[in-house]
Design a protein that fits this description.
It is a single chain. The chain has 13 helices and 15 strands. By secondary structure, the chain is of the alpha/beta class. It has two domains: 160 residues, Aspartate Aminotransferase, domain 1 (Alpha-Beta Complex), CATH 3.90.1150; 262 residues, 3-Layer(aba) Sandwich (Aspartate Aminotransferase, domain 2), CATH 3.40.640.10. The strands form three sheets. The chain has a seven-stranded mixed beta sheet with strand order 4-10-9-8-7-5-6, with helices on both faces. Strands 1-2-3-13 form a four-stranded mixed beta sheet. The longest helix has 29 residues. Belongs to the class-III pyridoxal-phosphate-dependent aminotransferase family. GO terms for molecular function: (S)-3-amino-2-methylpropionate transaminase activity; 4-aminobutyrate:2-oxoglutarate transaminase activity; identical protein binding; pyridoxal phosphate binding.
Length: 452
């Protein structure tokens, strides 16, 4: 029995009317990746204002790993609302902030003393992590990687790799930001297989330290354990460990940005666990709040204590309702069932997607870790095929499944479904993707034949 129920075309008349109002009231810079307007969400299902029921494989860009309106999260928020809604932790404290910090200190990788600072968004976590690293080291430069995404603030944009639409017309950005390959050069990813050696990473960093910035001037390296907006790229074996080792050798703070990978997305609570990493600082947000805005910087106590009193702060950081939601999210993961579900979802997708790849030559790669999975599309000559990714996302939406695109060249389709999605709903969603691939294949193949 199908849980997708389409009463109108997508978008329906009410969504179209709201789109018109949006265009008149909201600036064009706030891009709409779909024309949907939602009035209700539950688990992994969305209902739009026209009464259409769709399966959500986007999860609010990875913010609802525990599902839309998770009962435990909703109950915790309601209880907090009955007590108080806002205090500002820097003025008068409350226990939930401290409790959440204690839990993050205990749960994040690394058997050493830690402390946690709470903020509102992933970009805020990035900003504060760099501040903390600079204060600790007395240095100024920062290293990041190709195809990284670290937010839309001015510092976040300096660290973010993709130019259009994120960085166009917004410069100049913070200086002393230097970019290195994510293990191997981006143009070699599809052809490269196997690990990278420590000496290869050392040679790459030696080039950077000799020609771009001195190692003794670098405060931090910031890296996503698996690239998010950059296309769900999994690092080659050995890269992150070698990078962390070199950082420690030179007194550079190693920052893991787990804003999108954290809280179960990859089948572990933190993606760093897959690689045996113990970052100096780890950044979390998105699914930490179960749907409410909250972010955290957690790290070595001596590094976190580097800024003086008043050096960190924010009016709404660690809002009481968001803290309550985050504590409930942590409880949801306590028994390990959601982590097992994430691994099962990834395995199920991989089994299907490998078949699709053999059927459709324009699928250049199937990749991911746990429930963080993606398809990459390419033309016959290997160049990125953004049109194929866009067509697939649009066709799936018309059939009642919401999926998102990603990648520096917009040629990747990614899955960020709630981990609570039922086996039946996920199977139905995969069937829609499979049918959509078959439906768009003739047009994609025809264009490929005509242009190559």
């Amino acid at each position: 029995m199908s849980n997708i129920k389409l009463k109108t075309e997508i978008p329906g008349p009410k969504s179209r009317a709201l789109t018109k109002r949006r265009s008149q009231a909201v600036p064009r810079g706030l891009y709409a990746s779909t024309p949907l307007f939602i009035r209700h969400a539950e688990g992994a299902m969305l209902e739009d204002v026209d009464g259409n029921r769709l399966i959500d494989l986007g999860g609010g860009i990875g913010c609802t790993n525990v599902g839309h309106r998770n009962p435990r999260v909703i109950q915790a928020i309601r209880a907090q609302l009955d007590a108080f809604l806002h205090q500002c932790f820097t003025v008068s404290g409350y226990e939930s902030y401290v409790e959440l910090a204690e839990k993050l200190n205990a749960l994040t990788p690394g058997n050493f003393a830690k402390k946690t600072f709470l903020a509102n968004s992933g970009a805020e976590a990035v900003e504060n992590a760099i501040k903390i690293a600079r204060a600790h080291t007395g240095r100024h430069a920062v290293l990041c990687v190709e195809d990284a995404f670290h937010g839309r603030t001015m510092l976040g944009l300096a660290l973010t790799s993709k130019t259009h639409p994120y960085k166009d017309h917004f410069g100049p950005f913070m200086s002393d930001v230097y970019r290195i390959p994510f293990g191997i050069p981006a143009d070699q990813r599809l052809s490269h297989r196997g690990p990278v050696k420590q000496k290869e990473v050392e040679a790459m960093l030696d080039h950077t330290f000799r020609r771009l910035v001195a190692a003794e001037d670098v405060a931090a390296v910031i890296v996503e354990p698996v690239l998010g907006e950059g296309g769900f790229v999994v690092p080659p074996d050995g890269f992150l460990n070698a990078l962390a080792d070199i950082c420690h050798r030179h007194g550079i703070v190693f920052i893991a940005d787990e804003v999108q990978t954290g809280f179960g997305r990859t089948g572990e609570l933190f993606a760093c666990t897959h690689f045996g990493l113990e970052p100096d600082l780890i950044l979390t947000a998105k699914s930490l709040g179960g749907g409410l805005p909250i972010a955290a910087v957690t790290g070595r106590a001596e590094i976190m204590d580097a800024p003086g009193p008043g050096g960190l702060g924010g009016t709404f950081g660690g809002n009481p309702a968001s803290c309550a939601a985050a504590l409930a999210v942590i409880e949801e993961f306590a028994d390990g069932k959601l982590l097992a579900q994430a691994r099962l979802l990834g395995k199920t997708f991989q089994q299907k997607a490998r078949v699709w790849q053999r059927q459709h030559p324009f699928i250049a790669d199937v990749r991911g870790v746990g429930a963080m999975q993606a398809l990459e599309f390419a033309h016959p000559d290997g160049s990125p095929n953004a049109a194929a990714a866009k067509k697939l996302a649009q066709h799936c939406l018309q059939k009642g499944v919401l999926i998102l695109t990603a990648g520096t060249y917009d040629n990747v389709v990614r899955l960020l479904m709630p981990l609570t999605i039922s086996e039946e709903d996920f199977a139905e969603a995969l069937t829609v993707i499979e049918d959509s691939l078959s439906a768009i294949a003739p047009e994609i193949n025809e264009v490929a034949a005509a242009t190559h």
